[in-house]
Amino acid sequence: MNHKTDQRRPPRHAPPLLTITSARTENLDPLSRASIIRVCVAAHQEESFKHLFTYIPSGGYHFLAYQEQEIVSHAVVTTRWLQPEGMPIFRTAYVDAVATIPVLQGKGYGSTVMLELAHALSIGVGNYQIACLETDKPGFYTRLGWQSWRGPLAGRGENGLIPTPGVGVMIFRLPQTPRLNLDSGLTIEDQGGRIW
Ligand SMILES: CC(C)(COP(=O)(O)OP(=O)(O)OC[C@H]1O[C@@H](n2cnc3c(N)ncnc32)[C@H](O)[C@@H]1OP(=O)(O)O)[C@@H](O)C(=O)NCCC(=O)NCCS
Question: Considering the entire predicted model, what is its pTM?
């Protein structure tokens, strides 16, 4: 891995007083974990984010925006396995828990976090072949270079495919991403109840 973690550096498209760091899940101290949960719960109005570190006990790449000492925006990448129809299974950077605290939304923090995340993946962090996320806010990601998958979506379960119509899935092409047909089928492994 050629990307330094736990190191603060100036972002390329920075709102004032912003620093961006990245850290592996296992290197996050309890205070940082509590702050990330606070940001996610407040942004999504969703208490289930209190269990974020149960779902991601280790191995995630967290991208964090700080205003002075406070975490104000976050996104995390974990490894999953996408398969476009007729293609091999791709080692996939799956993005979750994208959140900016409500009072600081609209000031560029979320975009900066997502640009930093895309840059890190593009230079080889995690050795991923493609990035993916599920969202009901495609407009936010489209302006950052993400593309909506237009074809049919499904989970790959033990007993076959589980269609997931009506879900908004987007991908981000990395240098290693082969040519793709966004109108073809796209599947992802069923994670024991969670698909996208
Ligand atoms: C989505 C979210 C992470 C964006 O973070 P942020 O720090 O407010 O983002 P930024 O300030 O960098 O960017 C906001 C820009 O995106 C635009 N934007 C935000 N949501 C958008 C949407 N649904 N469609 C199109 N554009 C959108 C804003 O208009 C703004 O544009 P501007 O820079 O031209 O003014 C934040 O609003 C948030 O935490 N929302 C609640 C949780 C959530 O929905 N997370 C994503 C779910 S996948």
Answer: 0.91
